[in-house]
Amino acid sequence: MSNAHFSFWTPGHVPADEGRSFGCAAHGYASAGDWREPQAPGAGLWPAALNAEPVSGTYAAAWERLDRVAWRPAAALLLFSHAQGIETFLERWNVRFPGVPVAGGGAALGAGQTAGELLPAAPDVAVLLIRGGRWRAETLNVHDRTGRIFEFRAAGPRAIAQLRENGEWLPAATVFRALQAAYGRAETDCESLTLCDTAGRNVHCRFDGEFLRTGADLPADGRMECRLVSRADVARRLAEFCAVSGALVFGCAGLRSLLDAPLPVAPGTLAGFMFGELVTVDGRPQFGNLMAARLAREV
Questions:
Q1: Helix, strand or coil for residue 69?
Q2: Residues 145, 150, 155, 158, Cα dihedral to 10°
Q3: Claim: this prediction has a pTM higher than 0.85
Q4: Alpha carbon distance 246, 267 (integer Å)
Q5: Do 1 and 20 form a contact (C-beta atoms < 8 A)?
Q6: 208 within 8 A of 10, measured Cβ to Cβ
Q7: Over the stretch 144-185, which tens digit does the pLDDT of each residue have?
Q8: Domain residue extents for the chain
Q9: Which of 30, 294, 112, 123 is nearest to 8 (CA)?
């Protein structure tokens, strides 16, 4: 696919595919001069023309093709139509293509949708292998450290049953509500307050009885740190991250909920809000929440 183009669009408004299109639905997007709300129709085009090869389909079909790739990509974009299987895909990716700069994430869902829209259309994953140029993948965690470390007991890959800071084990929901109260957060605010693994990757939490359900898989070491951020700092830090010209930015839909005004971005930059984003941690792409990732050419 020579001269491939990337687009974000709002759910239900897939742009016409002329055979060179790649992209996904976003929970709103921003380009220079255009701030698109999630419910508003629209599609934003990243002006960079890419010499790239797309691979899409089910996870199995994608790997059948990826395992035959005989060249090393300069960078890659990975987009997913749903949240299941992303971490498993990335484990295999990091073995097959170690060190390749990566950005992407989970496509946003519109009302009534059970899978996010991708181009090329795919049930699981769409991959764009970029040829040529020098690229860098960078990650932003807008949340500040508190130094409060919690051990957790899991009830599944994305479920926390209990937490403890120093003393006894308590229901995870009880602990999180106590943190909300301690830091002056509303009971509905699971975005400005979050849990982060020891490598710096956030997971978004939501209440499920006495459990916390997370938007990404939990770390293997059983430890998480409480982090928090003000709305003003979210706006400032995201704007600074989007101030690089010609970049492609994948932010979290949860962060977008903390913005009180349109996000300014540099000329030639396109930023979209995902249902989970791929962040680079310890040199490897991982699936996280409430963060932002940027792919840009090196000058």
A1: coil
A2: 10
A3: yes
A4: 7
A5: yes
A6: no
A7: 999 999 999 999 999 999 999 998 999 999 999 999 999 999
A8: 4-140+232-297, 144-228
A9: 30
